[in-house]
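Supplementary Methods S3. Complex input for the NAP-bound model.
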Amino acid sequence: MRTFVVAGGNSGIGLQVSRNLLGGGDRVIILGRDQRKAEAALDSFGASRERAEFHSVDLSRSAGVRDAADHIRTSSDRVDGLLHSTGVIYDGDVRTAEGIPLFLAVSYLGRYHLTQLLLPHLLKSPSPRVIMMGSYMRKVPEVDVARFPEFRGLSFRQLIPQVNGAVMHYAAHLAASHERLFAGVVCPGLVKTDIFRDAPRSMRVMTAAMRPFVGNDITTAAANPTRALLEGSGRTAMYWRKAASFDDQTTVNVDPTIQQALMDASRIATGV
Ligand SMILES: NC(=O)c1ccc[n+]([C@@H]2O[C@H](COP(=O)([O-])OP(=O)(O)OC[C@H]3O[C@@H](n4cnc5c(N)ncnc54)[C@H](OP(=O)(O)O)[C@@H]3O)[C@@H](O)[C@H]2O)c1
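Predicted complex, serialized as structure tokens:
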């Protein structure tokens, strides 16, 4: 039986991907913070529940990432696929105890850290895959590595391209560094989920107005990440820009100088 890890699998798109994987007979280890949401999720799995487990952990903190990796390494011999579906939206300059913008910690640095710790377990799989959820991008944003990871003075909106760019550079690095490992980034489109609960009012109003015209339902949004985890292949990282159009993938091309600097800075920030 294959084992998948879904970070952010107790809600939204990650939960639907977990459900899809369980439906195919696989085992899923779900990470997230909210135990109550997780229990409702596990209850909704019916007979598949016995192949699912939840570990409550704060992935914005280094200690939380290390705890998650320890738990996974203890409970499974190998990891076949890792989906990063963690995400937050908020207003203002919210930082972790380590002084890093919460958005960067949840949506890039915690993902980098957990993946690096799980690499030996992933590389035991015949077809290891790492998939990260991201936003809509016309091209890969440049990362201002000189300001990484504190990004002092940037608003949440200004952080969005920095985080998306970092995710794309890391996906390209993973795919290029490990011959059998596939890496990809998926944009789910606009989907009504818990992620908007702490969003600025203007963003909530705007997305609510747009959703009837351009929104996707959860099943549609979860289709590409599920298939990417099960079928993604190739030596270069791929990006899915459009929900549920699996064949519509583009190669992730990044600036090698920025990539090297970002990987060095990420290693220094996490120790791995
Ligand atoms: N919904 C959209 O329109 C949209 C658009 C573009 C991209 N995306 C991306 O899609 C992904 C999934 O988002 P979603 O819409 O499904 O939202 P969601 O339902 O809020 O899912 C986000 C997940 O992240 C987890 N999470 C947040 N902070 C965490 C932390 N510090 N430690 C551990 N887990 C944490 C949440 O668990 P807890 O609640 O337990 O913390 C939850 O499971 C995200 O990466 C998001 O950026 C979504």
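The CA atoms of residues 14 and 157 lie 23 Å apart. The pocket of NAP is lined by residues 8, 10-14, 32-34, 37, 57-60, 85-88, 106-107, 133, 135, 188, 190-191, 193-195 (CB under 6 Å).
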